[in-house]
């Protein structure tokens, strides 16, 4: 047989080794709409348990908003279930063009192209735009999807130390012989929750005649005075050459992403972007719902403002409780545990207390940097956060990590 027993055993042993090390990633089945409270089967097939969700990307609490759901129904009723085609053949509807126009206006750019996901957008843009005469200079903590996109491009690859502007400048000087120097960064770094120094990056780009790419997936909708992202927050809207972002987080939580920026860049993505050319178009229901989201958040900043207050409370409360968190101002708040198995045990105990928050460890984060990544939502009320805090304190006491330093936790549990 093609699939020999020795191959099956080798692969099975790998899975068993992951389980033995306490690092096996178990899926949980959510049996309700995405919200601040959800019904979860953990393990799958067990009785459902109602828990507070502290690890979704539902930053504005719009994943199940009635206006968004109603818009999705309109998309189904008026434009059907799916496109059954890629965009350039017969997969482009009028509403796709309408959403692209709305995103362009929202992000303050020249043009926008939709992709099936932000992962696809990041996978397609560099190969479409850059050649072997160019260089990509990326922050070392960029998202995995950007890393994969970089690998597909012919341009030279280089990096700079995380948010280190001096190191970035050295790399820009080094690569002055290249046709295009593209600085690549996340707007908000998804595992740490800190913001890129986008104003400084733009200054260096202007000084050394470079382009700037920013992934705004974790910022679109709530960072910046009106939720336009890191570019708005740092006062550099209109100065970013390429923005990638998602419709799958704050902007509704379904799927779909885009590249937005200079019109020539967008046009090259239409002509050459492989995920765009060879993947079905975004479903009509998602397109309509995404436009409803943009309308909602353009009318008022109420949800963004509530999220900002929730985030400030949560960051201070965890710090005051003696837990170690990554500094920052976003709704991504990592509770650092450093040990992979500890992160899994801590997560299970939180679930027993009615709190759903998943432990992250290598290869999702570097070895020795295991954590519980908590994420705030405008859907959270204060009673949700207070209950979650009580659970973190209770579990923290169990493992004797409250008030402990990083080294003390490592000494006790290892890395």
Q: Beta-sheet strand percentage?
A: 15-25%
Strand order of the largest sheet: 4-10-9-8-7-5-6
CA-CA gap between termini = 42 Å
Helix content: 40-55%
Number of domains: 2
Q: Give the C-level CATH assignment of the largest domain.
A: Alpha Beta
- Contiguous low-pLDDT stretches (5 residues minimum) are none
Number of separate strands: 14
Q: Please, what is the CATH homologous superfamily of the largest domain?
A: Type I PLP-dependent aspartate aminotransferase-like (Major domain)
Q: Would you kindly provide a written description of the structure presented here, covering whatever features stand out?
A:
There is one protein chain. With 415 residues, this protein is of the alpha/beta class. The protein folds into two domains: 23-53 and 301-413, Aspartate Aminotransferase, domain 1 (Alpha-Beta Complex); 66-299, Aspartate Aminotransferase, domain 2 (3-Layer(aba) Sandwich), CATH 3.40.640. Helix content is 44%, strand content 16%. The protein contains 16 helices and 14 strands. It has helices at 5-20, 66-79, 87-91, 94-107, 118-129, 144-152, 165-174, 198-207, 230-233, 263-272, 274-277, 284-299, 302-320, 340-352, 382-398, 406-413; strands at 29-30, 37-41, 48-53, 111-115, 135-139, 156-160, 181-186, 211-215, 242-246, 257-261, 332-338, 355-356, 359-360, 370-375. The strands form three sheets. The protein has a seven-stranded mixed β-sheet, sandwiched between helices. It is globular and about 55 Å long. The model has no long low-confidence stretch (mean pLDDT 96).
What can be said about this structure in brief?
The protein is an alpha/beta fold and 415 residues long.
